[in-house]
Write a structure and sequence with these properties.
197 residues, mainly alpha, Arc Repressor Mutant, subunit A, Tetracycline Repressor, domain 2, 2 domains, 70% helix, elongated
Length: 197
């Protein structure tokens, strides 16, 4: 029987999770089957169950690993003794880089989370809500300190996060600017639009 091939020091489970991210992005969580995943990994479907319990477990792992990375980053940024504008720029650069370098995982956690079941669904929605409130609070501090224009902070957060999710079209583009140029362009537009001059 074929064994799961590992590379880049990944465990077999990590290989499965990575392949699942690609599959869920391409087909959607509902349409992707364990047979599809087994084929992508190169083993019999039954062999997958030696490493994972279910397709749902994979979605849970993908969604929460991404959410936890974002929460860890905002924890770090909030503690920094820098301006609100610098904090926002750091968070946006992190978002952009996650979307560029961990595209499959971020895409799945952003689009397929609705297929989680409770209590995970409620927990994930709560994490998203808290993250956006904390991001908005940084903007509100910047407004109070006259660093940022007087705008509605929650709306600004939604606009910025939706703009970054649009990096999906950059991935699909045949003729595209480099990842570095993309990042600098987005920072120039998103942060530049906030700054109170």
């Amino acid at each position: 029987m074929a064994r799961i091939k590992t590379d880049n020091n990944l465990t077999r489970k990590e290989v499965i999770v990575t392949k699942a991210a690609t599959l869920f992005r391409e087909k959607g969580f509902k349409a992707a089957s364990m047979r599809d995943l087994a084929e992508a990994v190169g083993v019999e479907a039954a062999s997958l169950y030696n490493h994972i319990k279910s397709k749902t477990e994979l979605l849970h792992e993908l969604c929460f690993s991404v959410a936890n990375r974002f929460l860890h980053k905002i924890d770090e940024v909030e503690l920094e003794k820098t301006s609100s504008v610098e904090k926002i720029e750091k968070l946006l650069r992190f978002h952009i880089n996650e979307m560029i370098h961990h595209y499959e995982e971020v895409y799945v956690s952003d689009r397929e989370w609705k297929h989680l079941s409770d209590p995970y669904l409620s927990n994930f929605q709560n994490q998203r809500r808290i993250y956006r409130k904390r991001f908005a609070a940084i903007i509100e501090t910047g407004i109070k300190n006259k660093e940022i224009k007087s705008i509605d902070a929650p709306t600004a957060v939604l606009i910025m996060l939706h703009a970054i999710s649009g990096i999906e079209s950059w991935h699909r583009s045949v003729q595209k600017i480099s990842a570095e140029e993309l990042e600098e362009n987005m920072i120039s537009i998103l942060v530049g639009g906030l700054v109170n001059r």
